[in-house]
Amino acid sequence: MSVDKAAKADEQKKQAALQALTLVKPGMNLGLGTGSTANHFIRALGAKVKEGLEVKGVPTSRATAELAKELGIPLTTLGDHPFLDLCVDGADEFDDQLRLIKGGGGALLIEKIVATSAKEVVIITDETKRVKTLGQFPLPIEVVNMGMKATAWKIERAFRMFGMNPKMALRVKDGQLFRTDMGNAIIDAACGEIKDADRLEFVLNNIPGVVNNGLFINVATRVIMATAKGTQEIKGK
Ligand code: 5RP
Q1: pLDDT digit string, tens, across residues 50-87
Q2: Which of 32, 40, 102, 131 to mutate to test the pocket of ligand 1 (most atoms within 8 A of CB)?
Q3: Residue 111 near ligand 1, beta carbon < 6 Å
Q4: Nearest residue by C-alpha to atom 8 in ligand 1
Q5: Into how many domains does the chain fold?
Q6: Which residue has its alpha carbon closest to ligand 1 atom 5?
Q7: Across the 237 residues of the chain, what is the mean pLDDT of every consecutive 10-residue run?
Q8: 20: containing domain
Q9: Is the dihedral of CA 110, 60, 180, 7 positive or negative?
Q10: Is 237 inside a domain boundary?
């Protein structure tokens, strides 16, 4: 992406975040997402908290927890608040049925736990994230270290059942094997079109050694997508 396009996308992410902020009401317990779009929301929320808004947040990653603490947003846990009012997060892709690919930032597991604990899940994005069919973004699959090669082989076999043969790569960051906040590794699977995302999510998650995968099906209740012409809301049925 060119510098100009990236700056435009970032401005759109900010606009979507500001729109999501209008859904926050005093006293709410919120899921706080991870990534550059979620960070825009968290910064805007932090400003409201400074003005006196009383809310609590459950962070979906260490990075989000640190940012929220810096901004003075009170944090809580799912242990204390297992039912959240609203979760606001970004996504790597979404389709017209509000199905998502998440995990580009590696926080997919906690993001899924937190999002599925919330009454309303609002995904904030720029317009580049909208796709007709999921799969242009490599699908992150979080795996435990033990038996990782065997798990990778079982993942390949599962993809073959779907007539797919994605290029799979262990995620590396700064020359080191990437570790999630939970200490697991991520296999990124460059799928191309995912024709049966609902069943694929289930089948991958059923492989021993797979902790979870980045397909979020029936999780988002609303997408707020910013475009050059303003923000658009796409609601689930
Ligand atoms: C992190 C995620 C993010 O929501 C996703 O990667 C989008 O990131 P960004 O808002 O920086 O584009 O799933 O695990």
Answers
A1: 999 999 999 999 999 999 999 999 999 999 999 999 99
A2: 102
A3: yes
A4: 35
A5: 2
A6: 91
A7: 84 96 98 98 98 98 98 98 98 98 98 98 96 98 98 98 98 97 98 97 98 98 96 87
A8: 3-131+218-231
A9: positive
A10: no
